[in-house]
């Protein structure tokens, strides 16, 4: 095969073989060749400071030497066995010690898969069918999760709008969609559907939108009142907002929680965790064939992923890890204010110092519709200019990493200043 060197050749090759020219995840006009620490390089050798960090997992930085060493030590022992392995059990113990709701755990390979099982588990446990989900909440690619994920057309709540073709109406019939951070709406919908709702799934910090004070507590109280399984999707927030995740930071414990990204240290691993009396529905010997939720997967609990996850969580337990992450996040937030404040353009920094984004609007958005109403043209300029100034990020999110150095932050500040100037010119 002919050796290809330039990124444009790879782009052409991808366009020929991959639908839409990519893996479906990210802008297909860039190929990342390599990542080290806080930086990534594309196939043309351009260097970027990485605020995408693999869409979250690489919070310690790329190719962290201790994680790499642990993984390289076990690779010669084999890749995968399907049978139990000790690393997977050790990691499950570490997670259950850290995460308030976690009494038992099952592994899968992706966050979306974990969310799919969590919703099914709520149905198995309660014997009910309906699931409440928030508009704009992201829970992977299952049919349920595709309901009102990022709807272009807005419907009256609780009507779900599928974001994907190929989903039967029967799925929509059992989904109820609610606006995030709306206390009154949640109270009324749960009262109206009393006895029918199996589970309520929520990102405790939805994409970038923090919960208003008391919102998660209200969800907790209402789910308890109606016997609904409260599911926190902590695929992003787990081990990021705090070592014990959003449930530790906000002090609200769900019944079930899903984890992914950080727990696999950059390898494919995710998990469903929760109360033992609910998790027991994965055990046929306890609940019988009728109640049992069958769950398995070829690579679930893969030892290499578990090894990388164990080492990553060990590093995160070291003194000062979360303070450092927050300091770096706060430093970037301040740079944004310094760069955008003088432009006079309406903007808000939305999120938590551990993950956030700029939304170009005049007040803090509380839900999907308010984020969507922000100035999309300004957001496009923001993303494009940052990329051209050597900042690698996804539209809609900035992920600080622990490995950002002072030099990275200086360069980020310079880039933000340039983007502020570019935005000023657009008026
Ligand atoms: C909150 C949330 N849940 C679930 C997922 C799906 O995880 P995965 O991409 O591993 O399937 C994501 C992915 O970004 C996510 O942000």
Short description:
With 427 residues, the chain is α/β, with parallel strands linked by helices.
Please outline the helices and strands.
Blueprint: H1 7-17, E1 32-36, E2 39-42, E3 47-50, H2 65-74, H3 86-98, E4 104-108, H4 111-126, E5 130-134, H5 169-173, E6 175-178, H6 183-192, E7 197-202, H7 215-226, E8 229-233, H8 245-250, E9 256-259, E10 270-274, H9 276-279, H10 284-291, H11 303-317, H12 321-340, E11 348-352, E12 355-359, H13 368-372, H14 376-388, E13 391-392, H15 406-426
Parallel strand pairs: 3-13, 5-6, 5-7, 7-8, 8-9
Antiparallel strand pairs: 1-2, 2-3, 4-10, 9-10, 11-12
Pyridoxal-5'-phosphate binds near residues 111, 203, 236 and 270.
What descriptors fit this protein?
single chain, 427 residues, alpha/beta, Aspartate Aminotransferase, domain 1, Aspartate Aminotransferase, domain 2, 2 domains, 7-stranded mixed beta sheet, 4-stranded mixed beta sheet, 15 helices, binds pyridoxal-5'-phosphate
């Amino acid at each position: 095969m002919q050796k290809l060197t330039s990124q444009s050749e790879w782009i052409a090759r991808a366009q020929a073989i991959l639908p839409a020219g990519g893996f479906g995840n990210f802008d297909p006009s860039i190929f990342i060749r390599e990542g080290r620490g806080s930086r990534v390089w594309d196939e043309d050798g351009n260097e970027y400071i990485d605020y995408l960090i693999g869409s979250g997992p690489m919070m310690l930085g790329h190719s962290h030497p201790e994680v790499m060493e642990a993984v390289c030590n076990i690779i010669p022992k084999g890749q995968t066995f399907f049978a139990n392995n000790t690393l997977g059990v050790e990691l499950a113990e570490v997670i259950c010690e850290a995460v308030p709701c976690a009494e038992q755990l099952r592994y899968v390979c992706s966050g979306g898969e974990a969310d799919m099982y969590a919703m099914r588990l709520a149905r198995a446990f309660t014997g009910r069918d309906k699931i409440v989900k928030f508009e704009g909440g992201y829970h992977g690619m299952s049919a349920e999760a595709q309901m009102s994920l990022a709807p272009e057309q807005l419907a009256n709540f609780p009507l779900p709008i599928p974001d994907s073709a190929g989903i039967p109406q029967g799925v929509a019939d059992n989904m109820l969609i609610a606006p995030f951070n709306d206390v009154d709406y949640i109270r009324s919908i749960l009262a109206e559907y009393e006895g029918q709702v199996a589970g309520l799934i929520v990102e405790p910090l939805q994409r970038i939108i923090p919960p208003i004070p008391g919102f998660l507590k209200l969800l907790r109280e209402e789910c308890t009142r109606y016997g609904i399984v409260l599911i926190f999707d902590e695929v992003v927030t787990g081990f990021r907002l705090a070592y014990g995740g959003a449930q530790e930071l906000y002090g609200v414990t769900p019944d079930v929680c899903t984890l992914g990204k950080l727990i696999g240290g950059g390898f494919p691993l995710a998990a469903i965790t929760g109360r033992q009396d609910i998790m027991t529905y994965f055990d046929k010997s306890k609940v019988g064939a009728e109640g049992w939720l069958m769950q398995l997967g070829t690579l679930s609990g893969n030892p290499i992923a578990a090894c990388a996850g164990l080492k990553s969580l060990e590093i995160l337990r070291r003194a000062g890890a979360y303070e450092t992450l927050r300091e770096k996040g706060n430093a970037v937030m301040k740079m944004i204010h310094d760069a955008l404040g003088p432009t006079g353009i309406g903007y808000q920094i939305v999120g938590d110092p551990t993950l956030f984004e700029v939304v170009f609007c005049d007040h803090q958005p509380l839900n999907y519709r308010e984020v969507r109403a922000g100035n999309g043209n300004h957001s496009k300029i923001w993303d494009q200019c940052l990329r051209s100034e050597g900042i690698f990020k996804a539209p809609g999110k900035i992920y600080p990493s622990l490995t950002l150095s002072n030099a990275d932050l200086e360069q980020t500040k310079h880039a933000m200043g340039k983007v502020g100037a570019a935005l000023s010119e657009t008026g």
